[in-house]
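I am writing to request your help with a piece of structural work I have in hand. Here, with my thanks, is the record as I have it:
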Amino acid sequence: MAKINPFKAVRPTRDKVSLVAARSYQSYTQDEREARLDFNPFSFLHIVNPGYKYHKEISGKERYRLVRNRYLEFKEDDIFVQDKKPCFYIYRVVNREQKVFTGIVAAASTEDYKNNVIKRHEDTIEYREQIFKEYLKTVGFNAEPVLLTYPDSNVIENILESYTQTRAEFEFTTTYRDTHYLWLVEDAKDIQMIQDEFSKMDAIYIADGHHRSASSFLLGEDLKNTGNEAYNAFMSYLIPESQLRISEFNRLIKDLNGLSKEQFLLKLDELFRIENRGHELYKPSKKHHFSMYLDGEFYSLYLRKTSYEFTDSLSELDTHILYVTILKPILGITDLRNDSRIDYGYDKHNVIEMKNRIDAKEFAVGFGLVPANVEEMKRIADEGLTMPPKSTYIEPKLRSGVVIYEF
């Protein structure tokens, strides 16, 4: 039984939301960040980069305290205002390709995370969990929700549809040409209907935000005897499975691990049927097929299934197949998270980007994959397994600072 609750969000005023809303800090180039910080005093980037005010890089606990101070200043200046009553928040994103994502921003239960009602499919790194836990404890808010996905529900869909036919509380378009909308669900009957529908679900799944949810759980464990119930939940954005969009991450490797091109191709031939595709851009179209760009040419790699054993859902995942057949045994990549010889690329232009980086001699070889799907992700989570890092690039991506869950 999944438990979600309404909460009193802290939100920008309607006239400033488009100025406040920001992408994740890491997604900006340095020039982009500086331009926004220089010319937009309302950007949420001022909160997460508090040292900019003093033209100084600040890190660690000192930064956390200053993030808290900048956040309080935004509240004192009435840029942020807290809602008077608990609500669910319907958040819609229509991207520049006219793909529509509509979901519910709510407080998800850390107890559900502990009991595997909220299921995960990725490993987390302990030190990152601890760092973010300390950050949350100091700043006292979530500004970026964990993306959760749930089985499609006609009941929930009908409720969302009834609200999205009305005027939105927020509506703004970004420079990326994505349009964002927000509606408030304040009616007690509608809130109860949504909660009842989620309570019938045996499981919901983390799509994006494994470290954020793990850190929130650890924080709740630290503070569970304080009587502050807000610490026993984390902000989430719940969308139906049918709307989840999963893209692939390409793999780029800096060298051939001491092998010549000919030696490398011979080793690949043991597990793959190889076809030279020449200079034309090539992407794989089926599971267990891979593209490879090497020395100015594209290749297709078809897994020889007589030489590979499928034993569970993880063994059928293409990122795992690539790791256990090529990256680890041939190219010597054992630590996918930390090895400096591997990098990852995503988005619809990543084949061109991969080719350009290899042609520039930044990398020696690149591999393209077919994206994983929701069913694969769920099966791996249900079996208690975890995907290799960078197995999925998942959309939608919400803007920080539009809805804030305050402890």
In short: Residues 89 and 312 are 38 Å apart (CA to CA). The radius of gyration is 23 Å. The longest strand covers residues 100-109.
